[in-house]
Each structure stands twice: as C-alpha cells, then as structure tokens.
Design goal:
It is a single chain. By secondary structure, this protein is mainly alpha-helical. It has a domain of 101 residues. Helix content is 45%, strand content 4%. It contains seven helices and two strands. Strands 1-2 form a two-stranded antiparallel ribbon. β1 and β2 form a beta hairpin. The N and C termini lie far apart (81 Å). The relative contact order is 0.08.
C-alpha cells in the first residue's frame, strides 16, 4: 500500500486533534505515530474499524466513529475545520523549529568524542584527574541508631530469669527433631 505524504499528514493531524499524537506533523509515519495509533486502537470509540498494529489507515479501511474520508481519501474527524488544521500545523512547525534549534546548540557526536579524547590525553600526562564518580542518586541522610527509652530497659531487667526463659522459644536443630545424630570426625 502506497501512502502519500498528504494522507499521512492528515492522519497525523487527526491523531493530534484527538489527543493521541504530540509529535511533528511531517508526513513521516515513525515510532511516535505507531504508538499513537495503537493507543487509539485500544479505545472504545475505535469500532467498527479493525486494529492493525499502529499502521496508517489505508484507502479502503473502515473508519472508527467520528472519522471520515475527505479531499481525495484523506482521513479527518467529522468536526475538524480548516481553522483547526491551521492551529495544529502552526503548533507543529513551532515544535519542529524548537527541536532543530536545540539540536543545533548541542555538540555533535564527533565533538563529544574529541572532548573525551582530549580529557584522556590530559589525564595520561597527569595534568588533570578526569576519572571521578558522579553519584546520580538522591541525597540519603545519615542514619543513626536510636536508644530505647530508659523505662523500657528498666522494666526488662526487673523480670525474673524464669519468665524470660519461658518467653524465649526453644531452638532445636532439624537433626534433633528427627532423631538423627551428627557424626563429627
């Protein structure tokens, strides 16, 4: 099945409008689109359509409640207007521009590798200590043992030795329970 970029964009717009997709609307059906479509397929409103594992709708598929074919077999929600489309496209373009700007500011993989190599060369010469442990776990406060209240400690010492003996369970080994003897050499 061949999908045009416009048909895929229409389906991305639909998934976005329905709240399943938050990615860029670019006509590329990637992992985020597949996940969004799968989530949509799990919903109660997906009948009478048949789930297909997150793939885009084809031209002959039955559509879920509230969706319809328009404009050369593109799929949109019934209440979807051109104004809705423009708002979503503008938001998508802004998100895409922000991601591109972020990516441009981040050093490339080659730059990161070169920086690591430079640090390793400095460490070999003894100029800096590169290897250091970075603990990413949250701060754990120091735990100290707490003493028992004095009253409790005194009460325990006042009990006769016989009562204490009754309270402690008798411990016997498995061998003693079953009448076996240990042969020690």
């Amino acid at each position: 099945m061949q999908y045009t970029k416009n048909k895929l964009m229409a389906q991305q717009l639909t998934l976005f409008h329905l709240g399943f997709y938050t990615g860029v609307i670019d006509g590329v059906w990637g992992p985020a689109c597949i996940q969004a479509k799968r989530e949509m397929e799990r919903g109660e409103d997906f009948v009478p359509a048949n789930p297909n594992g997150g793939l885009p709708f084809s031209d002959r598929d039955k559509l879920p409640k509230g969706l319809e074919y328009r404009d050369g077999q593109e799929i949109y929600p019934r209440n979807f207007t051109e104004e809705d489309r423009e708002k979503i496209m503008t938001a998508s373009q802004a998100r895409q521009a922000a991601r591109l700007k972020e990516a441009a500011q981040e050093p490339s993989a080659e730059e990161k590798i070169e920086a690591i190599r430079a640090e390793a060369r400095e460490a070999e010469r003894g100029e800096t200590a590169v290897l250091q442990h970075v603990d990413e776990s949250p701060f754990v406060p120091e735990v100290t043992a707490q003493e028992e209240p004095a009253e409790t400690a005194q009460e325990e010492t006042k009990q006769p030795a016989e009562e204490k003996a009754d309270e402690e369970p008798k411990r016997t080994s498995d061998s003693a329970k079953h009448g076996r003897k240990h042969n020690r050499r």
